[in-house]
């Protein structure tokens, strides 16, 4: 399931959540500056989507199964 559009969202913590990387593909967060996806299901697909967030300043992906493929 995709996370819905939240245009005013500035920070989001999904630490420990099992949100698949594809959930981030929906976008809709133009003001998101801080995303904590540590210890979650964040994948290369999520990393690729996060690269398209225009205001993102901080991305935490500790212990996530990602590679440089999503860059």
Low-confidence parts: none
Radius of gyration: 11 Å
The string of secondary-structure elements, in order, is EEHE
Total beta strands: 3
How much of the sequence is in beta strands? 5-15%
Strand order of the largest sheet: 1-2-3
Number of DSSP helical runs: 1
Helical fraction equals: under 10%
How does the major sheet shape up? 3 strands, parallel
* Quaternary assembly: single chain
- Amino-to-carboxy terminus distance: 23 Å
Tell me the overall shape: globular
- Average pLDDT taken over every residue: 85
SS-derived structural category: mainly beta
Write the layout of secondary structure elements.
Blueprint: E1 11-13, E2 34-36, H1 44-50, E3 58-60
Parallel strand pairs: 1-2, 2-3
Describe this structure in words.
The protein is 10% helix and 13% strand. The model has no long low-confidence stretch (mean pLDDT 85). The chain has a three-stranded parallel sheet with strand order 1-2-3, with no helix packed on it. It has one helix at 44-50; strands at 11-13, 34-36, 58-60. It has one helix and three strands; from the N terminus they run ββαβ. It is mainly beta.
In short, what is this structure?
This protein has 71 residues and is mainly beta. The protein is 10% helix and 13% strand. The protein has one helix spanning 44-50; strands at residues 11-13, 34-36, 58-60.
